[in-house]
Structures are given as C-alpha cells and as structure tokens.
C-alpha cells in the first residue's frame, strides 16, 4: 500500500485477528465457556469481582529455627559421646544451644566437633567452660527462605486436593503467604486443613521409664516425654527420641474402614518400607507410638513384623477426620505452623456489583473518548475510535492468553489504557496538521505525521511501561493487578494507535484519493 510493505500489513492483520479470537470466550455464555478447550478460556476473575475468601498466613519461622536446633542438639549429643568428651547441661534455649565441657582441655576439640555436625552453618562461642551454639546469619536466611518456599508448595497441594477452582497462592513479604479462594464463602474448612503441620513419625515407647520417673528427671537422654492426643489411651508417653521413619517416607495415605471403624491406611517408599519392616521385626512385642504434630495419636503393640511397606493407623477417627489426616499426609508436612493473621470474605453479590460498576465506568469513559475524537478530528477521529475499540479487545485477548486474573484495579488499568491509546493518536494528528500547514502532499503529510510523532510516543509509553513493571515487581495484590493491566495496555496501545491507525488511513487514501487532508 503505497510505500508501506505488504508483509507489515499482513502481520498487523494476523496479530489483530488473534487478539479478537482470544477475546471471544469472554463474551460467551457461561454454559458455552465451560465447554471450551483449556487453551481458549476467558479471563479469570479476581476475588473482588467473583467473591470468595482470602487468608493471610504467617509462617512461624521461630519454630523452624527451634526445630532445626533441636536436630543439632541430638547430633551434638551423639558426637560428644562417640568421641568420649564429657559434658553436662546440654540444653536448648530458644534458637541457641548451651553445653558445659567438663575437661577444659577438651573445649577446643569440642568446638571443632560441634561445628562439623552442620559444617558451615554453626557459630560456637565460648564463655569459661560453657559453649553456646547458634546458626550463622547466612544459614538462618537460607533456612527461613526454604521454609516459606516449602510452605507455599504444601499449601498449594492441600488446597488443590479440595478441588477449589483457580486458587491464588503467593508469597507476601518475607514470611507471609496470601491465599485467595474464589467462590469459597466459608474458609473454616481450609483454615482447619492448613492449621496442622501434619508432621508424623514413628517411635518405640520406652517401657523402662515411667511417667513418674520421667517427671523426677530419671529419664534417659535418648528418650523424651510427649503428650497424648485427646483420643489416645494415655495423657503422656515416654518415647525414644530417634524416629524409626518419618512422614517424608510416605508415598500414599487413604481414609479406609476396618471392622467398622474409620482408619488411615498408608504406604512407605522402598527405603521407608525396608526400615519400618526391619524395626518391627526386631521389636515384636513392643509398643509403637504414632506421633502427629508432637502428640501421640495411638501406640499399639507390634504383634508381628510389618514388612509389606504399608500399614494402618487406627484411633478414634471419624470419617471426616480420617479423610483430613490422609489428605494432609499425602500433601506432606508443613515445615512450620501457619498462623492466620487476616481473613476476608467477599460475597458474590458484592463481586457482581463491582463488575457492573466497572463495566459502567469503562463504558462511560470509552463513550466520552470516542465522542471527543470524533468531534475533534472528524473522519480521522473515526480511525482513532476503531483503533481504540480494537485496543480494548486485544488487551482482553492478551490477558486471556497469559491467564491473567482480572481484578477491580485491573479494570481501572483498562480505563487508563483508553486515555493512553488516544493520546498517541492526538500526537500523530497534531503533527499531521503542522505538516499540512507547510503545504506538503497528502502522503508526505501522513508519513511525516507518523514518523515525527513516533519518538515522543515511544518515549512516553516506555516510561509508562517501566513504571508498570516496577508495580508488578514490588507490588502485591491489587497494586500488582493494576501494574499487569497497564503494562499490557501500553503494548496494545502502541500497536493499535501507531500501526493499525496507519493502515486504516492509508487504505482510505488509496480508495478515496483525497486532494487534501481534513484533520
């Protein structure tokens, strides 16, 4: 078309058609949307538009550090005993460990051995004959980051098993997780599911030590006292510290029935099954405690070796509690407890009101912009209006392709995109008026108008894009949603205002062959 390459016209047409194609599902009835293939779906509505529940969870990172230091305590105890170093008062105080070395000559050797129990991650300070063990700062940062990442993954697995449609789970800050559940009006079931860490382990009961002796301090360092669950037969149990196997070795867990009672059947991986089989074979007649989240839920007697790699956990389970426990075990244990620090429920009625208000605002805004461009630039205003409508369609289509979630701030971003789109057309048309006043020909006026205005359009939109990307990078929730919409809007605005409008104008010039431009 004149001096405009045909391949550019074809490419512009293909891109525009794809934008319209992927926008179509958003205007189909709900029944038809459900029948569409996964790659051709409408936009997902956010919590503020669809209604649902939002939970803000805080990962108890202090507990993570305490648990890790507890593991270090066991390692230090074993190491010092193996090397024959006498010690007293090996105690854990929060996130630190303290131990007194009996022989002063063994202090340097003890410090070196303690550091090697978790090489590169421990600091050991000395004050007289007492050593204080703590984690290094890099180790703490790494430990806490890993705990939050693992928590997000476990939360996602548990919620996925509930069948919630389009949940949103993301990190917020350094130690918080935001969970959005569209369509879920009662979050109590989710809170209950996320309120347990589901850390399970199997320990043999220490039959040689009574609870009374343990309370008087007459207890082996290899044993500890743990409370029983409400359904357990005892209030407290003395169990061995060392677990035979843990929940990390489980591959499956299901709610089941045995003799009319709800139970949880489980299966180990090859390593866990072999270890569990050997331990039960060598300890027939002893009681085996099943510990869940620091409480004994059952402690049956091992009557025969369990070598099949599977077993059954029985207790006073209801059908629901057995299903919940099985679901949590399948999902994996949380590395730390999660505390609900904020809970918000948005009713579907409020979401519908927000959608209607957003549609009305965008409709009024678009109508005013269309009328302004028509009144100011006449026929060229119509070209700009066509490009604006296509811009809105392409923006929705692009958001659908990228599976973006549309929120109320996102609707505000769409409204802002309208202004950015016609702003580029205003710059082009004003430059065309200046070129026409200099007496240039029709084609030269069009060419000069687009080429001279492009640098200003590019600079302004590039600045807007950088700002939007910063909102996406540093923002969360509504702020991030606004940034996503405006950044995509910048791309579609430049495409429609500069390239689509140019093709429309050149097509009109080829058909109408005007002697002058009435911009």
Write up this protein.
The chain has helices at 6-23, 30-33, 47-50, 61-82, 107-117, 137-162, 188-194, 211-215, 270-282, 319-331, 348-377, 379-401, 408-437, 442-474, 478-512; strands at 44-45, 52-59, 87-93, 96-101, 122-127, 130-135, 168-172, 176-182, 200-204, 223-227, 236-240, 245-246, 250-258, 261-268, 288-292, 295-298, 310-317, 338-346, 405-406. It is α+β, with helices and mostly antiparallel strands and 519 residues long. The protein has three domains: 6-50 and 347-512, Multidrug efflux transporter AcrB transmembrane domain (Multidrug efflux transporter AcrB transmembrane fold, Up-down Bundle); 61-138, 2-Layer Sandwich (Hypothetical Protein, Haloacid Dehalogenase-like Hydrolase, Chain: A, domain 2); 195-340, Gyrase A, domain 2 (2-Layer Sandwich), CATH 3.30.1360.200. It has a four-stranded antiparallel sheet. Strand 7 (168-172) and strand 8 (176-182) form a beta hairpin. The longest helix has 35 residues, at 478-512. The two termini are 21 Å apart. The relative contact order is 0.12.
Helix/strand layout:
Elements: H1 6-23, H2 30-33, E1 44-45, H3 47-50, E2 52-59, H4 61-82, E3 87-93, E4 96-101, H5 107-117, E5 122-127, E6 130-135, H6 137-162, E7 168-172, E8 176-182, H7 188-194, E9 200-204, H8 211-215, E10 223-227, E11 236-240, E12 245-246, E13 250-258, E14 261-268, H9 270-282, E15 288-292, E16 295-298, E17 310-317, H10 319-331, E18 338-346, H11 348-377, H12 379-401, E19 405-406, H13 408-437, H14 442-474, H15 478-512
Parallel strand pairs: 1-19
Antiparallel strand pairs: 2-8, 2-18, 3-4, 4-6, 5-6, 7-8, 9-12, 9-15, 10-11, 13-14, 14-17, 15-16
Helix pairs in contact: 1-12, 4-5, 6-10, 11-12, 11-13, 12-13, 12-15, 13-14, 13-15, 14-15
């Amino acid at each position: 078309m004149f001096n405009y390459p045909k391949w550019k016209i074809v490419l512009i047409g293909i891109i525009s058609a794809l934008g319209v194609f992927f926008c179509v599902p958003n205007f189909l009835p709900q029944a038809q949307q459900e029948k569409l293939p996964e790659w051709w779906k409408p936009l997902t509505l956010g919590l503020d538009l669809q209604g649902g529940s939002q939970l803000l969870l805080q990962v108890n990172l202090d507990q993570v550090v305490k648990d890790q230091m507890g593991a270090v305590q066991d390692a230090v105890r074993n190491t010092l005993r193996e090397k024959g170093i006498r010690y007293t008062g090996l105690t854990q105080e929060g996130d630190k460990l303290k131990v007194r070395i009996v022989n002063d000559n063994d202090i340097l050797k003890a410090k070196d051995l303690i550091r090697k129990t978790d090489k590169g991650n421990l600091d050991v300070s000395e004050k007289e004959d007492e050593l204080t063990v703590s984690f290094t700062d890099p180790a703490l940062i790494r430990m806490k980051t890993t705990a939050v990442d693992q928590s997000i993954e476990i939360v996602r697995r548990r919620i996925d098993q509930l069948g919630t449609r389009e949940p949103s789970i993301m990190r917020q800050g350094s130690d918080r997780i935001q969970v959005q559940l569209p369509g879920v009006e009662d979050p109590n079931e989710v809170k209950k599911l996320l309120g347990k860490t589901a850390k399970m382990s199997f320990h043999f009961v220490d039959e040689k030590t009574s609870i009374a002796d343990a309370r008087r301090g007459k207890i082996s360092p290899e044993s500890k006292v743990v409370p029983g669950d409400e359904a357990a037969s005892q209030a407290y149990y003395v169990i061995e510290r060392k677990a035979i196997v843990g929940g990390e070795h489980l591959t499956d867990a299901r709610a089941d029935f045995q003799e009319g009672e709800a139970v949880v059947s489980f299966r180990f991986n090859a390593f866990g099954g072999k270890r569990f089989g050997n331990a039960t074979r060598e300890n027939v007649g002893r009681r085996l405690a099943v510990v869940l989240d620091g409480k004994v839920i059952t402690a049956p007697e091992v009557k025969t070796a369990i070598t099949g790699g599977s077993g059954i956990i029985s207790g006073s389970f209801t059908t629901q509690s057995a299903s919940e426990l099985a679901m949590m075990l399948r999902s994996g244990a949380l590395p730390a407890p999660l505390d609900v620090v904020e809970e918000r429920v948005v009713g579907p009625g409020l979401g519908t009101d927000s959608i209607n208000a957003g549609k009305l605002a965008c409709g009024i805004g678009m109508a005013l912009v269309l009328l302004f461009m028509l009144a100011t630039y006449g026929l060229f205003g119509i070209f700009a209006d066509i490009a604006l409508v296509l811009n809105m369609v392409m923006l929705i289509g692009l958001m659908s392709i990228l599976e973006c979630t549309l929120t109320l701030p996102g609707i505000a971003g769409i409204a802002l995109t309208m202004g950015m789109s016609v702003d580029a057309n205003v710059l082009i048309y004003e430059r065309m008026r200046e070129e026409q006043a200099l007496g240039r020909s029709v084609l030269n006026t069009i060419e000069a108008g687009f080429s001279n205005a492009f640098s200003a359009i590019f600079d302004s939109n590039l600045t807007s894009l950088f700002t939007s990307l910063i909102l996406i990078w540093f923002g969360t929730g509504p702020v991030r949603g606004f940034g996503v919409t405006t950044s995509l809007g910048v791309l579609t605005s430049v495409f429609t205002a500069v390239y689509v409008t140019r093709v429309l104008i050149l097509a009109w010039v080829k058909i109408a062959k005007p002697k002058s431009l009435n911009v």
